[in-house]
Amino acid sequence: MLNSYPLLTDDLGLSMRGKDLLCVHDLSLDEIYRVFAVASELKSELYQGIPHRVLSGKSLGMIFRKSSTRTRVSFEVGIWQLGGYGLYLNADDIQLGRGESISDTAKVLSRYLDGIMIRTYDHEEVVELAEHSSVPVINGLTDLFHPCQALADMFTAYEKRGTLAGLKLAFIGDGNNVANSLLLICAKLGVHMSLACPEGYDPPQSVVEMAKLDAAQSGAQLQIVRDPMEAARDADIVYTDVWASMGQELEKVERAKSFANYQVNRELMAIAKPDALVMHCLPAYRGEEITADVIDGPNSVVLDEAENRLHVQKAIMALLMS
Ligand code: CP
Ligand code: NVA
Protein backbone atom coordinates (compact mmCIF):
# COMPACT_ATOMS: atom_id res chain seq x y z
CA MET A 1 0.00 0.00 0.00
CA LEU A 2 2.79 2.42 0.83
CA ASN A 3 3.89 2.99 -2.76
CA SER A 4 0.38 3.55 -3.98
CA TYR A 5 -0.45 5.92 -1.15
CA PRO A 6 -0.16 9.39 -2.64
CA LEU A 7 -0.55 11.49 0.50
CA LEU A 8 2.46 9.93 2.18
CA THR A 9 4.84 10.82 -0.63
CA ASP A 10 7.04 13.84 -0.20
CA ASP A 11 5.78 15.44 -3.40
CA LEU A 12 5.14 18.82 -1.79
CA GLY A 13 8.49 18.90 -0.03
CA LEU A 14 6.62 18.67 3.22
CA SER A 15 8.20 15.57 4.66
CA MET A 16 7.44 15.25 8.34
CA ARG A 17 9.31 11.95 8.66
CA GLY A 18 11.39 11.77 11.84
CA LYS A 19 9.89 14.89 13.41
CA ASP A 20 8.57 15.02 16.98
CA LEU A 21 5.13 16.35 17.90
CA LEU A 22 5.48 18.00 21.30
CA CYS A 23 3.39 21.11 20.74
CA VAL A 24 1.10 22.42 17.98
CA HIS A 25 3.40 25.42 17.59
CA ASP A 26 6.05 23.05 16.14
CA LEU A 27 3.84 22.43 13.10
CA SER A 28 3.56 24.79 10.15
CA LEU A 29 0.16 25.63 8.70
CA ASP A 30 0.90 23.36 5.72
CA GLU A 31 1.82 20.52 8.05
CA ILE A 32 -1.45 20.88 9.98
CA TYR A 33 -3.46 20.66 6.75
CA ARG A 34 -1.30 17.74 5.65
CA VAL A 35 -2.24 15.91 8.86
CA PHE A 36 -5.91 16.67 8.09
CA ALA A 37 -5.58 15.44 4.49
CA VAL A 38 -3.95 12.16 5.52
CA ALA A 39 -6.46 11.72 8.37
CA SER A 40 -9.33 12.19 5.94
CA GLU A 41 -7.83 9.66 3.51
CA LEU A 42 -7.19 7.10 6.25
CA LYS A 43 -10.70 7.59 7.67
CA SER A 44 -12.26 7.03 4.27
CA GLU A 45 -10.13 3.90 3.70
CA LEU A 46 -11.11 2.52 7.09
CA TYR A 47 -14.80 3.11 6.36
CA GLN A 48 -14.45 1.36 2.99
CA GLY A 49 -12.54 -1.56 4.44
CA ILE A 50 -9.43 -0.75 2.40
CA PRO A 51 -6.27 -1.89 4.24
CA HIS A 52 -3.70 0.86 4.84
CA ARG A 53 -0.80 -0.89 6.53
CA VAL A 54 1.71 1.87 5.90
CA LEU A 55 3.55 1.15 9.18
CA SER A 56 3.85 -2.58 8.69
CA GLY A 57 6.54 -3.99 10.98
CA LYS A 58 6.88 -0.76 13.01
CA SER A 59 6.38 -0.44 16.76
CA LEU A 60 5.12 2.40 18.93
CA GLY A 61 5.83 2.51 22.67
CA MET A 62 3.16 4.30 24.70
CA ILE A 63 4.34 5.55 28.10
CA PHE A 64 1.58 6.58 30.52
CA ARG A 65 2.06 8.34 33.85
CA LYS A 66 -1.64 9.35 33.90
CA SER A 67 -4.96 7.61 33.20
CA SER A 68 -6.42 7.49 29.72
CA THR A 69 -9.31 6.02 27.76
CA ARG A 70 -9.27 7.79 24.38
CA THR A 71 -5.55 8.36 23.97
CA ARG A 72 -4.59 4.86 24.93
CA VAL A 73 -7.20 3.06 22.86
CA SER A 74 -6.93 5.29 19.78
CA PHE A 75 -3.13 5.04 19.62
CA GLU A 76 -3.15 1.29 20.26
CA VAL A 77 -5.88 0.52 17.73
CA GLY A 78 -4.44 3.11 15.33
CA ILE A 79 -0.96 1.61 15.15
CA TRP A 80 -2.52 -1.84 14.73
CA GLN A 81 -4.70 -0.64 11.84
CA LEU A 82 -1.56 0.80 10.22
CA GLY A 83 0.04 -2.65 10.35
CA GLY A 84 2.28 -1.92 13.33
CA TYR A 85 2.41 -2.91 16.97
CA GLY A 86 1.71 -0.80 20.06
CA LEU A 87 3.20 -1.45 23.49
CA TYR A 88 1.40 0.00 26.50
CA LEU A 89 4.08 1.02 29.00
CA ASN A 90 2.65 2.07 32.34
CA ALA A 91 5.42 4.21 33.82
CA ASP A 92 5.09 2.35 37.11
CA ASP A 93 5.72 -0.97 35.39
CA ILE A 94 8.93 0.06 33.64
CA GLN A 95 12.17 1.16 35.29
CA LEU A 96 11.28 4.82 34.67
CA GLY A 97 8.91 4.52 37.63
CA ARG A 98 11.83 3.37 39.82
CA GLY A 99 13.98 6.31 38.86
CA GLU A 100 15.74 5.28 35.63
CA SER A 101 16.62 8.49 33.83
CA ILE A 102 14.57 9.87 30.97
CA SER A 103 17.69 10.03 28.82
CA ASP A 104 18.60 6.35 29.31
CA THR A 105 14.96 5.39 28.77
CA ALA A 106 14.88 7.41 25.54
CA LYS A 107 18.14 5.93 24.22
CA VAL A 108 17.21 2.34 25.05
CA LEU A 109 13.64 2.57 23.72
CA SER A 110 14.99 4.12 20.50
CA ARG A 111 16.92 0.88 19.89
CA TYR A 112 13.68 -1.15 19.87
CA LEU A 113 10.93 1.17 18.72
CA ASP A 114 10.04 3.36 15.73
CA GLY A 115 8.15 5.93 17.77
CA ILE A 116 7.30 6.84 21.36
CA MET A 117 4.07 8.38 22.61
CA ILE A 118 4.12 9.74 26.16
CA ARG A 119 1.47 11.07 28.56
CA THR A 120 2.96 12.67 31.65
CA TYR A 121 2.82 15.65 34.03
CA ASP A 122 5.85 17.83 33.40
CA HIS A 123 6.13 19.01 29.80
CA GLU A 124 9.91 19.27 30.21
CA GLU A 125 10.03 15.50 30.61
CA VAL A 126 8.68 15.12 27.07
CA VAL A 127 11.14 17.70 25.77
CA GLU A 128 14.00 15.77 27.40
CA LEU A 129 12.68 12.45 26.07
CA ALA A 130 12.65 13.89 22.56
CA GLU A 131 16.14 15.33 22.93
CA HIS A 132 17.55 11.89 23.73
CA SER A 133 15.39 9.78 21.40
CA SER A 134 16.43 9.00 17.87
CA VAL A 135 12.83 8.10 16.97
CA PRO A 136 9.83 10.49 16.81
CA VAL A 137 8.24 11.43 20.14
CA ILE A 138 4.53 12.28 20.27
CA ASN A 139 3.03 14.20 23.19
CA GLY A 140 -0.10 12.38 24.37
CA LEU A 141 -0.81 15.12 26.99
CA THR A 142 1.24 16.98 29.54
CA ASP A 143 0.19 19.54 32.14
CA LEU A 144 0.99 22.17 29.52
CA PHE A 145 -0.23 20.83 26.16
CA HIS A 146 -2.46 18.28 24.45
CA PRO A 147 -1.59 18.67 20.75
CA CYS A 148 -3.26 15.48 19.44
CA GLN A 149 -6.52 16.64 20.99
CA ALA A 150 -6.37 20.10 19.39
CA LEU A 151 -5.56 18.57 15.99
CA ALA A 152 -8.50 16.16 16.26
CA ASP A 153 -10.80 19.00 17.38
CA MET A 154 -9.90 21.28 14.48
CA PHE A 155 -10.14 18.35 12.05
CA THR A 156 -13.66 17.77 13.40
CA ALA A 157 -14.59 21.43 12.93
CA TYR A 158 -13.11 21.32 9.41
CA GLU A 159 -15.23 18.27 8.55
CA LYS A 160 -18.37 19.92 9.92
CA ARG A 161 -17.88 23.42 8.53
CA GLY A 162 -15.65 22.90 5.45
CA THR A 163 -13.52 25.88 6.40
CA LEU A 164 -11.71 27.08 9.51
CA ALA A 165 -10.24 30.54 9.04
CA GLY A 166 -12.64 33.19 10.33
CA LEU A 167 -14.61 30.89 12.66
CA LYS A 168 -14.90 31.89 16.32
CA LEU A 169 -14.16 29.39 19.09
CA ALA A 170 -15.25 30.22 22.63
CA PHE A 171 -13.42 28.30 25.35
CA ILE A 172 -15.19 28.45 28.71
CA GLY A 173 -13.14 27.23 31.66
CA ASP A 174 -9.62 26.63 32.84
CA GLY A 175 -6.59 27.95 30.92
CA ASN A 176 -5.23 24.39 30.93
CA ASN A 177 -3.38 22.01 28.59
CA VAL A 178 -6.36 21.70 26.23
CA ALA A 179 -6.98 25.47 26.18
CA ASN A 180 -3.27 26.10 25.54
CA SER A 181 -3.18 23.77 22.56
CA LEU A 182 -6.39 25.26 21.19
CA LEU A 183 -4.90 28.76 21.48
CA LEU A 184 -1.88 27.62 19.48
CA ILE A 185 -3.85 25.81 16.78
CA CYS A 186 -6.44 28.59 16.42
CA ALA A 187 -3.60 31.08 16.04
CA LYS A 188 -2.08 28.99 13.23
CA LEU A 189 -5.37 28.39 11.45
CA GLY A 190 -6.82 31.90 11.67
CA VAL A 191 -9.63 30.79 13.99
CA HIS A 192 -10.63 33.57 16.42
CA MET A 193 -10.58 32.37 20.00
CA SER A 194 -12.13 33.95 23.05
CA LEU A 195 -11.24 32.24 26.32
CA ALA A 196 -13.27 33.00 29.43
CA CYS A 197 -11.73 31.98 32.74
CA PRO A 198 -11.70 33.31 36.30
CA GLU A 199 -8.78 35.42 37.44
CA GLY A 200 -5.85 33.22 38.40
CA TYR A 201 -6.65 30.55 35.80
CA ASP A 202 -5.27 32.25 32.67
CA PRO A 203 -3.11 30.27 30.25
CA PRO A 204 0.62 30.87 30.85
CA GLN A 205 1.88 34.13 29.38
CA SER A 206 4.55 32.24 27.39
CA VAL A 207 1.84 30.27 25.58
CA VAL A 208 -0.19 33.42 24.88
CA GLU A 209 2.92 35.11 23.44
CA MET A 210 3.63 32.08 21.24
CA ALA A 211 0.04 32.11 19.98
CA LYS A 212 0.14 35.85 19.32
CA LEU A 213 3.15 35.42 17.01
CA ASP A 214 1.15 33.06 14.79
CA ALA A 215 -2.05 35.08 15.14
CA ALA A 216 -0.25 38.09 13.68
CA GLN A 217 0.36 35.99 10.54
CA SER A 218 -3.05 34.32 10.29
CA GLY A 219 -5.28 37.20 11.37
CA ALA A 220 -6.75 35.21 14.29
CA GLN A 221 -8.06 37.40 17.09
CA LEU A 222 -7.26 35.93 20.50
CA GLN A 223 -8.78 37.27 23.69
CA ILE A 224 -8.86 36.28 27.33
CA VAL A 225 -11.94 37.59 29.12
CA ARG A 226 -13.63 37.03 32.48
CA ASP A 227 -17.24 36.99 31.27
CA PRO A 228 -18.31 33.65 29.71
CA MET A 229 -21.21 35.35 27.91
CA GLU A 230 -18.81 37.77 26.22
CA ALA A 231 -16.68 34.85 25.03
CA ALA A 232 -19.68 32.86 23.78
CA ARG A 233 -21.27 35.72 21.82
CA ASP A 234 -21.74 34.62 18.17
CA ALA A 235 -19.35 31.71 18.59
CA ASP A 236 -19.23 28.97 15.95
CA ILE A 237 -17.73 26.53 18.44
CA VAL A 238 -18.27 26.41 22.20
CA TYR A 239 -15.62 24.33 23.97
CA THR A 240 -15.12 23.36 27.57
CA ASP A 241 -13.01 20.98 29.62
CA VAL A 242 -12.91 19.76 33.21
CA TRP A 243 -12.39 22.30 36.00
CA ALA A 244 -9.77 20.10 37.70
CA SER A 245 -7.32 18.31 35.44
CA MET A 246 -5.39 15.15 36.22
CA GLY A 247 -2.96 15.98 39.00
CA GLN A 248 -5.22 18.72 40.43
CA GLU A 249 -7.49 16.40 42.42
CA LEU A 250 -6.69 18.16 45.72
CA GLU A 251 -7.89 21.48 44.25
CA LYS A 252 -11.24 20.06 43.14
CA VAL A 253 -13.40 21.76 45.80
CA GLU A 254 -11.70 25.13 45.50
CA ARG A 255 -11.87 24.98 41.70
CA ALA A 256 -15.57 24.06 41.75
CA LYS A 257 -16.17 27.36 43.60
CA SER A 258 -13.96 29.41 41.29
CA PHE A 259 -15.56 27.98 38.13
CA ALA A 260 -19.19 27.96 39.33
CA ASN A 261 -20.14 30.69 36.81
CA TYR A 262 -18.24 29.05 33.96
CA GLN A 263 -20.67 26.31 33.01
CA VAL A 264 -21.64 25.59 29.41
CA ASN A 265 -25.44 25.40 29.66
CA ARG A 266 -28.52 26.31 27.64
CA GLU A 267 -28.38 29.96 28.68
CA LEU A 268 -24.79 30.30 27.49
CA MET A 269 -25.50 28.43 24.25
CA ALA A 270 -28.29 30.93 23.49
CA ILE A 271 -25.60 33.63 23.06
CA ALA A 272 -23.60 31.55 20.55
CA LYS A 273 -24.68 31.00 16.93
CA PRO A 274 -27.75 28.74 16.75
CA ASP A 275 -25.78 25.99 14.98
CA ALA A 276 -22.66 26.37 17.15
CA LEU A 277 -20.74 23.13 17.62
CA VAL A 278 -20.42 21.95 21.22
CA MET A 279 -17.00 20.49 21.91
CA HIS A 280 -15.37 18.79 24.88
CA CYS A 281 -12.21 16.70 24.89
CA LEU A 282 -13.78 14.25 27.39
CA PRO A 283 -13.92 12.92 30.04
CA ALA A 284 -16.79 15.26 30.99
CA TYR A 285 -18.54 15.86 34.28
CA ARG A 286 -22.20 16.60 33.58
CA GLY A 287 -23.60 19.23 35.94
CA GLU A 288 -20.15 20.76 36.49
CA GLU A 289 -18.43 22.32 33.44
CA ILE A 290 -21.32 21.38 31.11
CA THR A 291 -24.96 20.38 31.49
CA ALA A 292 -26.26 17.04 30.24
CA ASP A 293 -28.79 18.64 27.87
CA VAL A 294 -25.98 20.51 26.07
CA ILE A 295 -23.33 17.78 25.88
CA ASP A 296 -25.95 15.21 24.87
CA GLY A 297 -27.88 17.65 22.69
CA PRO A 298 -28.11 18.06 18.90
CA ASN A 299 -25.17 20.51 18.57
CA SER A 300 -22.73 18.27 20.40
CA VAL A 301 -19.88 16.72 18.37
CA VAL A 302 -17.98 15.27 21.31
CA LEU A 303 -18.14 11.71 20.01
CA ASP A 304 -16.90 12.80 16.59
CA GLU A 305 -13.96 14.51 18.29
CA ALA A 306 -13.23 11.33 20.22
CA GLU A 307 -13.44 9.21 17.06
CA ASN A 308 -11.25 11.63 15.14
CA ARG A 309 -8.48 11.14 17.69
CA LEU A 310 -8.03 7.76 15.98
CA HIS A 311 -7.88 9.08 12.42
CA VAL A 312 -5.73 12.12 13.22
CA GLN A 313 -3.24 10.17 15.31
CA LYS A 314 -2.97 7.54 12.58
CA ALA A 315 -2.11 10.38 10.21
CA ILE A 316 0.48 11.73 12.66
CA MET A 317 2.08 8.30 13.09
CA ALA A 318 2.03 7.63 9.34
CA LEU A 319 3.66 10.99 8.58
CA LEU A 320 6.29 10.88 11.34
CA MET A 321 7.12 7.17 11.41
CA SER A 322 6.82 5.90 7.82
N1 CP B 1 -9.37 13.43 25.64
C1 CP B 1 -8.49 12.56 26.15
O1 CP B 1 -7.27 12.70 25.99
O2 CP B 1 -9.04 11.49 26.78
P1 CP B 1 -8.28 10.41 27.66
O3 CP B 1 -7.79 11.10 28.90
O4 CP B 1 -9.31 9.37 27.92
O5 CP B 1 -7.12 9.86 26.86
N1 NVA C 1 -7.42 18.94 31.03
C1 NVA C 1 -7.70 17.53 31.15
C2 NVA C 1 -7.76 16.88 29.81
C3 NVA C 1 -8.05 15.41 29.82
C4 NVA C 1 -8.05 14.83 28.45
C5 NVA C 1 -6.63 16.89 32.02
O1 NVA C 1 -5.45 17.21 31.83
O2 NVA C 1 -6.96 16.07 32.87
Compile the SSE list and pairings.
Blueprint: H1 29-48, E1 59-64, H2 70-81, E2 85-90, H3 102-112, E3 115-119, H4 123-132, E4 137-139, H5 147-161, E5 168-172, H6 177-189, E6 192-196, H7 205-218, E7 222-225, H8 228-232, E8 237-240, H9 252-258, H10 266-269, E9 277-280, H11 292-295, H12 302-321
Bound molecules: phosphoric acid mono(formamide)ester (CP) and norvaline.
Question: What does this molecule look like?
Answer:
The protein is 42% helix and 13% strand. It contains 12 helices and 9 strands. The chain has 2 domains: 2-145 and 307-321, Rossmann fold; 147-305, 3-Layer(aba) Sandwich (Rossmann fold), CATH 3.40.50.1370. The protein has 322 residues and is an alpha/beta fold. Strands 7-6-5-8-9 form a 5-stranded parallel beta sheet. A 4-stranded parallel beta sheet has the order 2-1-3-4, with helices on both faces. Bound molecules: phosphoric acid mono(formamide)ester (CP) and norvaline. Residues 141, 176-178, 241-242, 245-246, 281 line the site of norvaline. The site of norvaline has 9 residues, from helix 6.
